[in-house]
């Protein structure tokens, strides 16, 4: 149970999550409605994860979907991968002054290597770093909640009612290629969703509490943490681990799709995916989160509905009917 839960949690704990960028944009921006959205997204995560047991691989989920939708989903994997490379570059630059391009190249090389090694090695890696990441994140959240700072929450907005589903859709899409190779029983899916919920709330509550101080910060959690403390450095490690594991899951998803479509050698496909993602990473992490994530999240809804409603769906007819309306 722990191995599979670790795999899924690590694919969700990406740079945007750990730094607070995603949590801000999809949850705390909407006040109390956003905090409730964290609970909704956790429940939907669990249900979707449980429903993946009806599929043997990622290709079965994509079956009968329009080719254009497949292309957009593939591009979403590349975008998310590039976002992780960009985030790692910005973090290393801020902390150590290392060139962002050099950091990106090194990360792409490491991610590409682990992707070529296969799903089992990805799971093993996730299992090693997931628990420390969750524990550190929760401790950081508690510390931030107890900080003696002025309470500046955002106003509540019903516009955030749809955000949990967008958030689930793109995170689910980036992990489906890996998780569909394993059957998540009810207990495993529930345990995974609880871990996601606890970790997300640990970040969302302090960002809600101090929203007025961090609403324009690209790295809101790090902005709140005191500089030079051990916990701050441990959290930087957490962000780095989250960035890397999410990059690996998206690399694996994109590479598996391209390999199945082209029949090319796995190593060639993985290197191609890495190069494309590296080039796109120059856009910048904050710009990718603000523009790319929402657009590709909408496409990810197709995958989410396909997983939730396991009966075969004629997506081409469904889209044609939508156009006719």
**Rg on CA atoms, Å:** 19 Å
Shape: globular
What fraction strand? under 5%
SSE order, one letter for each helix or strand: HHHHHHHHHHHHHHHH
Helix content: over 70%
Question: Can you walk me through this structure?
Answer:
The chain is an all-alpha fold. It is 78% helix and 0% strand. The chain is built from 16 helices and no strands. The longest helix has 33 residues, at 230-262.
Describe the structure concisely for a colleague.
78% of the residues lie in helices and 0% in strands. It has 16 helices and no strands. It starts with a helix and ends with a helix.
Provide keyphrases for this structure:
mainly alpha; 16 helices
Question: What secondary-structure arrangement, pairings included, does this model have?
Answer:
Layout lengths: L1 H11 L2 H5 L1 H6 L5 H20 L6 H5 L4 H30 L3 H18 L1 H27 L17 H17 L6 H24 L1 H4 L5 H5 L5 H33 L3 H15 L4 H24 L6 H10 L1
Helix pairs in contact: 1-8, 1-9, 1-10, 4-9, 4-10, 6-7, 6-13, 6-14, 6-15, 7-13, 7-14, 8-10, 8-13, 9-13, 9-15, 13-14
């Amino acid at each position: 149970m722990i191995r599979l839960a670790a795999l899924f949690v690590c694919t969700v704990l990406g740079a945007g999550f750990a730094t607070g960028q995603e949590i801000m944009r999809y949850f705390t921006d909407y006040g109390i409605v956003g905090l409730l959205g964290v609970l909704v997204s956790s429940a939907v995560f669990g249900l979707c994860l449980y429903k993946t047991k009806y599929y043997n691989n990622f290709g079965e989920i994509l079956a009968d979907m329009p080719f254009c939708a497949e292309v957009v989903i593939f591009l979403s994997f590349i975008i998310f991968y590039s976002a992780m490379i960009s985030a790692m570059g910005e973090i290393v630059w801020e902390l150590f002054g290392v060139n962002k391009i050099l950091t990106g190249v090194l990360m792409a090389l490491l991610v590409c290597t682990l992707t070529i090694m296969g799903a089992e090695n990805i799971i093993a890696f996730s299992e090693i770093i997931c628990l420390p990441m969750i524990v550190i994140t929760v401790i950081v959240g508690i510390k931030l909640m107890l900080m003696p700072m002025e309470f500046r929450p955002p106003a509540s907005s019903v516009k955030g009612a749809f955000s949990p589903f967008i958030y689930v859709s793109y995170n689910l899409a980036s992990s489906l290629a890996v998780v569909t190779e394993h059957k998540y029983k009810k207990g495993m899916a529930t345990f995974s969703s609880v871990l996601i919920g606890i970790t997300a709330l640990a970040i969302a509550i302090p960002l809600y509490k101090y929203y007025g101080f961090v609403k324009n910060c690209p790295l809101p959690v790090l902005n709140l943490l005191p500089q030079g403390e051990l916990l701050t450095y441990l959290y930087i490690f957490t962000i780095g681990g989250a960035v890397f594991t999410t990059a690996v899951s998206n690399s694996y998803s994109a590479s598996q799709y391209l390999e199945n479509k082209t029949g090319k050698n796995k190593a060639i496909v993985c290197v191609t995916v890495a190069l494309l993602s590296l080039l796109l990473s120059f856009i910048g992490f904050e710009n990718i989160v603000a523009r790319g994530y929402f657009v590709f999240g909408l496409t990810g809804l197709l995958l989410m509905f396909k997983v939730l409603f396991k009966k075969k769906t004629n997506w081409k007819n469904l889209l044609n009917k939508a156009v006719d309306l």
